[in-house]
């Protein structure tokens, strides 16, 4: 169980750090911007496309490409929940005030989830609205929110982003530094994009089983895996990362 008092204290620390609040707002704003940019380019391509290319046009996929950039900001938000205390030197004081390290970690997990979920929801929904309205204005096909694929994205996308924020939190505990944790999370989350130039078996494995790709493909409905497997890979991965982070935090000086 999460101690309400500890959770309130964590929220006070979170809201008092300018970087976390700025990053939260930047994540939402950037998502809307990327939705507009990618869909505007897609609408221009559609205007000059051949009949066959128009038949293959996927408005939801084209407009939501910015998710792969927004995920980096959400993960960085999770990193800051832990790394900001190491950077300011207040982690020892937090441990002393709470008394039990398990309560502190649980409170940070709860805070990360409770803050990342609304930020992620706003980011995903704004990107969707910006992208599909831009496609419609440009004369290209667009996807209505009642479409099963769009509905799945709008409901499950924020949950995937929240899990990635918890992944960032785990890295913040493990690496104790904002720069190092953000660099590692960025490399990890973007590896599927870089793997497109690797040999076929490696590329196919990463595209199917890499945690964030498995979840995103489940959300988009393009996964070769059952829904529970694709999403379960990310859930299991994040759970393992948090357990490892807790064990290290418990056994190492704050």
UniProtKB/TrEMBL annotation:
Protein name: YibE/F family protein
Keywords: Membrane, Transmembrane, Transmembrane helix
Membrane-spanning residues: 21-42, 62-82, 109-130, 150-175, 182-202, 227-249
């Amino acid at each position: 169980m999460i101690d309400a008092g500890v959770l309130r204290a964590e929220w006070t620390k979170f809201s008092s750090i300018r970087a976390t609040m700025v990053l939260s707002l930047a994540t939402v704003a950037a998502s809307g911007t990327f939705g507009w940019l990618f869909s505007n380019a897609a609408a221009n391509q559609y205007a000059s496309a051949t009949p066959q290319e128009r038949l293959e046009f996927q408005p939801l996929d084209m407009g939501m490409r910015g998710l792969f950039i927004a995920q980096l900001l959400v993960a960085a938000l999770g990193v800051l929940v832990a790394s900001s205390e190491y950077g300011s030197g207040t982690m020892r004081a937090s441990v002393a005030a709470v008394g039990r390290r398990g309560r502190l970690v649980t409170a940070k997990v709860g805070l990360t989830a409770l803050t990342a979920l609304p930020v992620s929801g706003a980011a995903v929904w704004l990107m969707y609205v910006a992208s599909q309205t831009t496609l419609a204005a440009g004369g290209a096909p667009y996807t209505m929110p009642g479409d099963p694929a769009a509905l799945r994205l709008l409901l499950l996308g924020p949950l995937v982003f929240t899990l990635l924020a918890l992944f960032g939190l785990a890295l913040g505990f493990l690496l104790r530094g904002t720069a190092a944790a953000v660099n590692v999370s960025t490399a990890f989350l973007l590896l599927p994009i870089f793997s497109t130039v690797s040999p076929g078996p490696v590329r196919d494995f990463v595209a199917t089983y890499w945690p964030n790709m498995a979840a995103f493909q489940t959300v988009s409905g393009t996964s070769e895996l059952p829904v529970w497997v694709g999403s379960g890979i990310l859930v299991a991965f994040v759970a393992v990362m948090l357990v490892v982070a807790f064990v290290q935090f418990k056994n190492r000086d704050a």
